[in-house]
Amino acid sequence: VRRVAPRFSILPVSHEIMPGGNVNITCVAVGSPMPYVKWMQGAEDLTPEDDMPVGRNVLELTDVKDSANYTCVAMSSLGVIEAVAQITVKSLPKAPGTPVVTETTATSITITWDSGNPDPVSYYVIEYKSKSQDGPYQIKEDITTTRYSIGGLSPNSEYEIWVSAVNSIGQGPPSESVVTRTGEQAPASAPRNVQGRMLSSTTMIIQWEEPVEPNGQIRGYRVYYTMEPDQPVSNWQKHNVDDSLLTTVGSLLEDETYTVRVLAFTSVGDGPLSDPIQVKTQQGVPGQPMNFRAEAKTETSIVLSWSPPRQEIIVKYELLYKEGDHSKEVLKNFEPTTSFTVEGLKPNTEYVFRLAARSALGLGAFTPEVRERTLQSSRCLSFPTLL
Question: How much is the pTM?
């Protein structure tokens, strides 16, 4: 009888399973004489010697936690042949390396990172959050490279950033975070609550508050002032101020009205100018009322509100208002307050308002015009009914 060397196969030769999963691996061998078949892991026999099957051996693996190689050994009088079956325990990816910031602008941060995983990952997820805000984390998904630029950020703001990897099992733990700050920009808003008053008949003091959106470290302010507000601001007189929220401007002409605007600047550039205010160069007169607003209350009344000038003793307010642009202005005087209701107006009609404060020494500058329309009349026409 012709003898045939043993030959065998392992089906399949490798498996991918979840942590704690079960799998059966089968070794089939043929030959003449038929070989005995056993399984080994390293030097350890997994098949009892007195119970070694012939031709076929199934190894049952349960609660598999780690990847491992298993060796199938086929033996006969003709020799010994081996083959290896690979069992890969597929688990969540490991945390990537800590992100490294390679570039920042005023509105973006570019990071790179090491994968931290020997096996390929499907994609990466970036989570980031402003350190100064309590809002939710922002998420960027489906990133297939280890370099990414996060855009749409706020200037001069500190951000904390994490990266995690995703494979077919799911999303792994995040990396260690990196904290970095975006670059500066010119301020996006003007100084707030600009107010002026006279220290003497030729010197005024101007005060303000920081912009809501400084976009960086405020390096200073520029105060522009003029008696000809219709001229371009570039033609106005300019007064530079270091990092302070008030300044004095002297050598003014007496009994004149000056228009004043203020801007803030960072190392990058100038921000927008504040709304104009007016200051009368008459010692002791009040500054303009601040935050002057109008809101329709009914079809015949409008409510006005404002903040009083700083550090002034107001004896009364003077209100000028008119219907539209071409009618004559009406004057009303009233005691110090922060709101006033104008009544007896026409329905669905626009009115124009100006307000000034008066002290014992005189009347201050009027505010810029504020416009508001009364509500439309709710009354409707009714027609007689024919019976």
Answer: 0.66
